Amino acid sequence: MKLAKHAQWLIAVCAVGALPAFAFAAETKKPRLELRGLPALGSPSTEFLFVADLKGGADSEDFYCPTLAWQWGKEEDASVQEPECEPFKAGVTRIERRFSQSRRFADEGPRSVTLVLSKNGKILARATASVRVTWEKSGLKGSVR
């Protein structure tokens, strides 16, 4: 196969790695949401603290000023926080990365609490944490203390 002179030169240069490398913008990873409940075990009089952290990713407008929807372990038991925020300024504005909420549960049993971050009707991230509500000190049936 006969190639034009400039094509032969290009192939030769590529083969020895003499061409400058082209830098492509890496796709920005989106932050991931982690949620934990503290303490993990408590009585119905315990005030549980739920702390969520957005880890990794850039401070992008996508995650700026999200709506927070807390689901407290029962379908009908939920709360929503819609924040009021200043306009986003690229390179200046920092996204909020920590969210917290406390809650008491009246009845015993395991509770699976979920936090959903959304914006303009689109779910950005979701995380779940579990706690156990019990009057027993060890959390195990039949334990003696």
Characterize the structure shown.
- The chain has one helix at residues 5-16, and strands at residues 32-38, 41-42, 48-55, 67-71, 78-81, 98-103, 109-119, 122-133.
- The protein has one domain: Immunoglobulin-like.
- The chain is built from 1 helix and 8 strands.
- Residues 5-26 have low confidence and may be disordered.
- It is mostly beta strands.
- 12% of the residues are buried.
How would you summarize what this structure contains?
The chain has one helix and eight strands; from the N terminus they run αββββββββ. The chain is mainly beta and 145 residues long. The protein has one domain (31-133): Sandwich (Immunoglobulin-like).
